């Protein structure tokens, strides 16, 4: 399991993730993968 904090990116770059919860991140990744698979 990979666990990371966006704190360094936020502090150094002023970046904030649009998704902070793991379920939302996985759902977005799944939708993206499905989209790419349909295009091929």
Write the layout of secondary structure elements.
Blueprint (H helix, E strand, L loop, with lengths): L6 H7 L8 H18 L1
Polypeptide structure, described:
The relative contact order is 0.11. The protein has two helices and no strands. The N and C termini lie far apart (30 Å). It has 40 residues and is mostly helical. The longest helix has 18 residues, at 22-39. It has one domain (7-39). Helix content is 62%, strand content 0%. The protein is elongated.
Task: Record keyword descriptors for this entry.
40 residues, mainly alpha, 2 helices, 62% helix
Share in helix: 55-70%
Q: By helix and strand content, what is the structural category?
A: mainly alpha
Distance between the termini: 30 Å
Tally of distinct domains: 1
Rg measurement, Å: 13 Å
**Shape by Cα distribution:** elongated
Low-confidence stretches: none
Strand content: under 5%
Mean of residue pLDDT values: 90
- Helix and strand element order: HH
Major sheet attributes: none
């Amino acid at each position: 399991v990979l666990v990371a904090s966006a704190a360094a990116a936020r502090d150094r770059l002023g970046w904030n993730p649009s998704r902070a919860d793991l379920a939302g991140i996985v759902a977005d990744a799944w939708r993206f993968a499905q989209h790419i698979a349909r295009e091929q």
